[in-house]
């Protein structure tokens, strides 16, 4: 059976920030939620839970907005994907790669582990409606071997998207005739259909990969997950993915980047993104240094200046002043990981 996740009108819409995640504050993820004041305020979300996933139908007669920033990510590290089917109105999503506007009939993905802002806009009849499913990242990866980024959008035309949407609607509207295991199988079927449709649009990597390609993917994922660990080394990576350090070196040579350069590149680029998006009061330079895997803020500053030709403090000030920094020049391939 469905349940009401939240319902807001003129009497309580100002309370939306404290209650949009449901009675137990466990749905969605942390962020700034707001409802635009107007003559008519009628916002309602109904939910059906299936295993670790939630199917939610959101209807509104006014404009809604939601913002998830780096500070929200640091406080709440939940990793989920939200798969949206736009029924009425539009979704306007601002993300790190630009902006996506989804119209009725479009399919959109947002991810909780990247900053974004989404606006739910009503149509000419002052109506907005979406059906969306919240899927834990580890469940989504069972069906999608490649991460689909926030803002990914496709016109939901054709049999595949229509079938997936129809399955989810049937699950949502089912009064309880289906047994629990059957409903889970239907959800898995919908995710499988969606992953196939996405791959057909050349968004994901080919399904057929060589063993070395799969191992390289495992290596890069392990490095991303453990990037903040100051003890990250070629030995720990090789052990973590179940290969020898010699084979790891072979894979990274094929990739064209030695281990040390790859890690420095990732750490400094993540730090640069963090500096550009977080004000001093939200995250200090020392905190950013530790969070990207440096043991010593002074060493972080030296390496950052070597790569960006300015100190972290100067880079942050330049970004806040909307000044474009110089081109990135990463450390030479012979650089060693030292903390």
Note the main sheet: 7 strands, antiparallel
Tally of separate domains: 2
Q: What percent strand?
A: 15-25%
| Arithmetic mean pLDDT | 86
Q: What is the CA-CA span between the terminal residues?
A: 54 Å
Name the CATH superfamily assignment of the largest domain: Jelly Rolls
CATH architecture of the largest domain: Sandwich
Assign the CATH class of the largest domain.
Mainly Beta
Work out the number of β strands: 12
Judging from the principal axes of the Cα atoms, what is the shape?
globular
Q: Name the structural class.
A: alpha+beta
Q: Helix and strand string, N-terminal first?
A: EHEEEEHEEEEEEHEHHHHHHHHH
Protein name: AraC family transcriptional regulator
Pfam families: HTH_18
InterPro entries: Homeodomain-like_sf, HTH_AraC, HTH_AraC-typ_CS, Tscrpt_reg_AraC-type_HTH
Organism: Sinimarinibacterium flocculans
What does this structure look like?
The structure is a single chain. The chain has 339 residues and is an alpha+beta fold. Helices cover 40% and strands 22% of the residues. The chain contains 12 helices and 12 strands. The protein is globular, with a radius of gyration of 22 Å. The protein starts with a strand and ends in a 19-residue tail after the last helix. Keywords: DNA-binding, Transcription, Transcription regulation.
């Amino acid at each position: 059976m469905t349940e009401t996740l939240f319902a807001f009108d003129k009497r309580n819409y100002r309370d939306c920030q404290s209650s949009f995640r449901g009675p137990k504050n466990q749905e969605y993820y942390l962020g700034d939620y707001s409802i635009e004041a107007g003559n008519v305020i009628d916002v309602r979300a109904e939910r059906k839970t299936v295993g670790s996933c939630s199917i939610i139908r959101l209807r509104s007669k006014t404009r809604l907005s939601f913002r998830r920033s780096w500070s929200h990510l640091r406080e709440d590290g939940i990793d989920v994907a939200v798969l949206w089917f736009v029924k009425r109105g539009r979704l306007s999503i601002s993300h790190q790669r630009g902006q996506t506007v989804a119209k009725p009939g479009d399919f959109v993905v947002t991810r909780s582990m990247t900053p974004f802002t989404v606006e739910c806009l009503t149509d000419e009849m002052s109506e907005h409606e979406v059906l969306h499913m919240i899927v834990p990242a580890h469940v989504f990866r069972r069906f999608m071997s490649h991460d689909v980024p926030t803002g990914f959008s496709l016109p939901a035309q054709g049999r595949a998207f229509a079938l997936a949407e129809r399955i989810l609607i049937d699950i949502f509207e089912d009064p309880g005739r289906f047994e629990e295991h059957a409903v889970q199988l239907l959800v898995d079927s919908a995710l499988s259909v969606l992953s196939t449709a996405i791959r057909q649009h050349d968004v994901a990597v080919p399904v057929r990969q060589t063993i070395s390609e799969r191992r390289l993917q495992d290596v890069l994922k392990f490095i991303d997950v453990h990037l903040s660990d100051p003890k990250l080394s070629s030995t720990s990576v090789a052990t973590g993915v179940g290969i020898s350090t010699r084979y790891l070196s072979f894979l990274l040579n094929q990739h064209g980047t030695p281990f040390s350069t790859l890690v420095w590149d990732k750490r400094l680029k993540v730090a640069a993104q963090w500096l550009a998006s977080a004000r001093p009061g939200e995250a200090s330079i020392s905190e950013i240094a530790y969070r990207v895997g440096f043991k010593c803020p002074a060493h972080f500053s030296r390496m950052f200046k070597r790569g960006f030709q300015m100190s972290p403090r100067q880079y942050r000030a330049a970004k806040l002043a909307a000044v474009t920094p110089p081109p990135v020049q990463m450390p030479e391939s012979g650089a060693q990981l030292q903390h």
